[in-house]
């Protein structure tokens, strides 16, 4: 893993209010947690609270947004552009989360995720690009095919991958309490890296950080973090608890 700095993201999803964010940030800011300098930590508050959380949060933690519009400013009621996120002082956006891909009210396509990724990079943001297969796809042996399809859509629109971090999040593991085994995570991460080597370049593959997401918690993080191709975590449920700091320490 040598050239790749461990990265842990906390996806707060559509949760929280000012009092709960105050309490969570206070816990994350605690001086007692020796997460150390070997990890980059990024938290993703709900859009409306991004600025609020940034103002309270320890400066060594980055802040990400959970989505953005496909392009720049304009007549797109209800949307937030990558340019605005950048202008407001934020560096990261999460794109392609499986909830945004699969909830019937949203249904983002591979092509939409790719367009957003290309535009966000152009606007100067770094992107946590989420990919992953459903339970059906895994059970029918299509895991690598699904990941390849989601990555290929992005490769059609993006040539410089240096500001992308991939989050491999098997849909069957998200919010279910069913975590991928270290072997499953390692095998799939290695396949993703192989795809990058064959379709982009060996250098992109070598440098790409691939986070694991899906029911990661303080109890299972260490054994996953030991896998050679697991370069961090994207954490949902457990990122709303002080336990998140333990996951951030799992690089050690
Ligand atoms: C996520 O939604 O990115 C996620 C990994 O959720 P959880 O940790 O709750 O499974």
From TrEMBL:
<comment type="similarity">
    <text>Belongs to the triosephosphate isomerase family.</text>
</comment>
<dbReference type="GO" id="GO:0004807">
    <property type="term" value="F:triose-phosphate isomerase activity"/>
</dbReference>
<protein>
    <recommendedName>
        <fullName>Triosephosphate isomerase</fullName>
        <ecNumber>5.3.1.1</ecNumber>
    </recommendedName>
</protein>
<dbReference type="GO" id="GO:0019563">
    <property type="term" value="P:glycerol catabolic process"/>
</dbReference>
<keyword id="KW-0324">Glycolysis</keyword>
<dbReference type="GO" id="GO:0005829">
    <property type="term" value="C:cytosol"/>
</dbReference>
<dbReference type="GO" id="GO:0006096">
    <property type="term" value="P:glycolytic process"/>
</dbReference>
<keyword id="KW-0312">Gluconeogenesis</keyword>
<comment type="pathway">
    <text>Carbohydrate degradation; glycolysis; D-glyceraldehyde 3-phosphate from glycerone phosphate: step 1/1.</text>
</comment>
<comment type="subunit">
    <text>Homodimer.</text>
</comment>
<dbReference type="GO" id="GO:0046166">
    <property type="term" value="P:glyceraldehyde-3-phosphate biosynthetic process"/>
</dbReference>
<comment type="pathway">
    <text>Carbohydrate biosynthesis; gluconeogenesis.</text>
</comment>
<keyword id="KW-0413">Isomerase</keyword>
<dbReference type="GO" id="GO:0006094">
    <property type="term" value="P:gluconeogenesis"/>
</dbReference>
């Amino acid at each position: 893993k040598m050239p790749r700095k461990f990265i842990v993201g906390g996806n707060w999803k559509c949760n929280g209010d000012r009092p709960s964010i105050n309490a969570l940030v206070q816990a994350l800011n605690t001086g007692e947690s020796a997460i150390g300098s070997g990890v980059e930590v990024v938290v993703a508050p709900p859009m409306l609270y991004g600025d609020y959380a940034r103002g309270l949060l320890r400066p060594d933690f980055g802040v990400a947004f959970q989505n953005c519009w496909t392009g720049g400013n304009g007549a797109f009621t209800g949307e937030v552009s990558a340019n605005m996120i950048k202008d407001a002082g934020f560096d990261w956006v999460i794109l392609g989360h499986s909830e945004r891909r699969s909830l019937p009210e949203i249904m983002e396509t591979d092509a939409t995720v790719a367009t957003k990724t290309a535009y966000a990079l152009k606007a100067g943001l770094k992107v946590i690009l989420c990919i992953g297969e459903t339970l059906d796809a895994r059970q029918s042996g299509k895991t690598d095919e699904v990941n390849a399809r989601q990555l290929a859509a992005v490769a059609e629109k993006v040539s410089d991958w240096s500001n992308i971090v991939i989050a491999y999040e098997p849909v069957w593991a998200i919010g279910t309490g069913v975590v991928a085994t270290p072997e499953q995570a390692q095998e799939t991460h290695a396949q993703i890296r192989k795809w990058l080597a064959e379709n982009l370049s060996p250098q992109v593959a070598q440098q790409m950080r691939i986070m694991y997401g899906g029911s990661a918690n303080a109890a299972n993080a260490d054994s996953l973090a030991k896998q050679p191709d697991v370069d961090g975590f994207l954490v949902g449920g457990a990122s709303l608890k002080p336990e998140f700091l333990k996951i951030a320490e799992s690089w050690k």
